[in-house]
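Q: what sequence does this backbone want?
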């Protein structure tokens, strides 16, 4: 009989069965992805203005899988987190971003920084501080060239423990950036305690931004808050020159988005050289 509910079980529909199998296959393949050299970092510039210099780059994970194709994080990140694979993958990301940053540094881009996204699972893992310290040492990179991006919800999952780790990372000299700002539920009191240097306004506020609408008022408030807390303000998801002009006028320190440059492989950083990424 078909039973459902709390203590019951439910039959999988045939298509659900294949779905589960696909997820299992995906997880198995993801486990191999690191040493099979299938992971890659794409980089997206943070800039002051479209024709201005690059100030930093955000590393965004890609998986070129021989069986599943070219995958963006939405296809495998939650799997990586639930399986714990995000820890070795995240360590690889930190190390690879530092290695690449050192290459750019040696090429004369001494004013760039590279930003890496962190999951809550990584923040809760005891070795994170050591991993970051070792990567910086190994690639002879000054800590100030590394930015760690965390979302409010990442930090809030275990707020006190996160604060401790973030303080240790900050003491190393790396920068902390609060990603997707405005989408989480952290209190202002908690925000004040975070050792963050940068605040990224979530794309959700930028998409429908127009002069005089609610989003403009919210962005103004976020910028005022961030500046009060002595943070650098970055707007993400900037796609039009109207958005760019307004965000610059409102006082954003840096912009990120398709207008300024799409994520692309490390080799092709010039906007013209980066082929449009398939969505
Ligand atoms: P995020 O950190 O908020 O990164 C920004 C996302 O928006 C990226 O998607 C980027 O490609 C996309 N984007 C950039 N500019 C624009 C724009 O103008 N318009 C639109 N519509 N989108 C834009 P992506 O690369 O697919 O990454 C998605 C999310 O996956 C990231 O969101 C981040 O939370 C996570 N992620 C990426 N790489 C890593 C990683 O190495 N580790 C962890 N833990 N998470 C990662
Ligand atoms: Ca980010
Ligand atoms: Ca973001
Ligand atoms: Ca996001």
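A:
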């Amino acid at each position: 009989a078909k039973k459902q509910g709390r203590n019951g079980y439910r039959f999988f529909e045939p298509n659900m069965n294949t779905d589960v199998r696909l997820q299992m296959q995906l997880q198995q393949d993801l486990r191999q992805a690191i040493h099979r050299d299938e992971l890659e970092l794409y980089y997206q510039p943070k800039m002051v203005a479209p024709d201005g210099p690059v100030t930093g780059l955000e590393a965004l994970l890609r998986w070129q899988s021989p069986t599943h194709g070219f995958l963006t994080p939405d296809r495998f990140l939650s799997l990586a987190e639930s399986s714990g694979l995000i820890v070795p993958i995240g360590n690889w990301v930190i190390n690879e971003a530092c290695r690449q940053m050192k290459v750019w540094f040696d090429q004369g881009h001494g004013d760039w920084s590279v930003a890496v996204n962190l999951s809550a699972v990584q923040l809760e893992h005891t070795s994170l501080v050591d991993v970051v310290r070792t990567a910086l040492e190994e690639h002879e990179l000054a800590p100030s060239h590394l930015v760690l991006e965390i979302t409010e919800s990442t930090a809030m999952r275990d707020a006190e423990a996160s604060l401790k780790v973030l303080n240790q990372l900050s003491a190393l000299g790396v920068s902390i950036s609060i990603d997707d700002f405005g989408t989480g539920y952290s209190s202002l009191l908690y925000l004040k305690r975070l050792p963050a240097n940068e605040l990224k306004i979530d794309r959700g506020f930028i998409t429908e931004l127009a002069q005089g609408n609610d989003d403009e008022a919210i962005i103004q408030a976020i910028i005022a808050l961030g500046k009060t807390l002595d943070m650098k303000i970055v707007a993400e998801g900037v796609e039009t020159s109207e958005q760019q002009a307004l965000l610059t006028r409102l006082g954003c320190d840096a912009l990120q988005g398709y207008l300024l440059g799409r994520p692309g492989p490390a080799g092709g950083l010039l906007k013209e050289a980066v082929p449009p990424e398939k969505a």
